[in-house]
Amino acid sequence: MTAEWVFNLYIFVLATFVGYQVISRVPALLHTPLMSGTNAISGISLVASLLAAGSHHRLSEILGFVAVACASINVVGGFLITDRMLRMFRKREPAVQASPPKALGEGKAS
Amino acid sequence: MTPTAVLLSLCYITAAVLFILCLRGLSGPQTARRGLVLGEVGMLIAVVGTLLHREIVTYEWIIAGILVGSTIGVAISAWIPMTKMPERIAFSHAFGGLATALVGVAEYMRESEALTLFKMGALGFETFLGFLTFTGSLMAYGKLQGVITGAPVTWKFQNYLNIGLFFGAIGGVGYIVFLHATGGDHQLMNAIFFGIAGVGLALGVMAVLPIGGADMPVVISLLNSYAGLAACATGFALGSQILIISGALDGSSGLLLSMLMSKAMNRSFANVLFGAFGTALEPGGKGAPQIAKSYNEATVEDAGAVLKASQTVIFVPGYGMAVSQAQHAVRDLAASLERRGVEVKYAIHPVAGRMPGHMNVLLAEANVPYDKLFDLDDINDDFARTDAVIIVGANDVVNPAAKKDPSSPIYGMPVFNVEHSRSVIVLKRSMNPGFSGVENELFFQANTMMVLGDAKKTILSMIGELKEGH
Fold this sequence. Notes:
Largest sheet of chain A: none
Order of helices and strands of chain A: HHHHH
Number of helices of chain B: 18
Structural class of chain B: alpha/beta
Structural class of chain A: mainly alpha
Number of strands of chain A: 0
Shape of chain A: flat
Shape of chain B: elongated
Helix content of chain B: 55-70%
Oligomer: heterodimer
Largest sheet of chain B: 6 strands, parallel
Helix content of chain A: over 70%
């Protein structure tokens, strides 16, 4: 049986590789949304905080509570603010463009 | 494996795939928002799945924590101005670091007896990196916010001390694993564990103190990467694959960004990692006598006259634009130029501002279409064919010394060839070289006009000037 940590190391190496490949395609234009987006994703430590906060151990509960609060700030705040930023990126100024509905369409390929 | 455990694993695999698709969406502005929704769904699946976990027996603290955190998260993201985005990112890295560090401490207190050797090591790293990210990010936040001086704070043997602390902490982790393996003194183990936590806290402060405000893009990216690594270590300690995957995604993103940023400042990555910022930023002009060089101080009218005679204009924004919140004014000036038939572009340096992509977000907020924003390589040849360049609070990224003067601290950094354009209009608060202390030759050149004062006010009066011309 392969030790668990070896298995986890495989996952770590492959995930780093995938992350590097995917993220190297993000243009400089979107580097700030990228940072706040990955920040929201790293709020996945919420999952670990939940386990700590939901245990029977007294100290663990309290530390877990603070951790859950901190991680929730990142998850909720991170996704909301990234969306707020991404909504602002426009290819054409609505006033300049001849066909406003197309320019206002969000996320549609135009 | 119980059916619930299988279900939970399936939830986590789905979440991991959705996270990767979320980042994939960020490869273009048209797909980014759709991608983000996938990431949100992934997070929801992961969290709801976890709540069904058999190890969770009480829910009061969880509900309280989620309510408190979500309220703060919603409040911050709704009200924070875009110019404060670097501060928010630094602050959220602090939260992320604190969360992982506290989870590490909780886990250690709860089941340090039962852990495998590898998990014990991972727990040590998690706690160390978590606390380091926490205080480091708070320091970065303080510097950005101006609570702590933005100038580098240096002292003797700083780097040796920091490196010593770093390896001390690693050694401590190793020693804990050794004690754990040999069933050593539990008291001693606890002491070392909390010692590692303390070193993490201290190192976070000491590693960021010597770094100047202008280097914040690298620091923020690096802290991003540390936060990711801390999450990874948590994953190893808890045997949670979703944490390893998400942490690795976050870590590689931070790593990639810090490499891009250090490349854009012509610093090697090793130079960045070992905190040699202080040496590169020693104020060059401090001891040297101030030579009274002459510059052309121009009025708004002079600048307006130049703009009226121009056919092509390029804006070069910098941190000063964020400080004076001038992005909307810049857009209005560009609009009134365009109404006169002038071709307007924006040149965005990778390290302009205080975080990667800072200028892009501000201009997007002001409704500047992103196809008018150009990277260094794409626009640098255009300056020679440009009538007027308007520099809004940028300094180092337009300093010709980076190309000509090997003694300059920023020598070798890729910069915009603004001096090749017919005339350069510099909007700047004062002739003070700023804390980096690097003199900028550009300001003293014959074709440069210095318009001193608040950038936003200056731009608004320029718009008035252009209107009068009709």
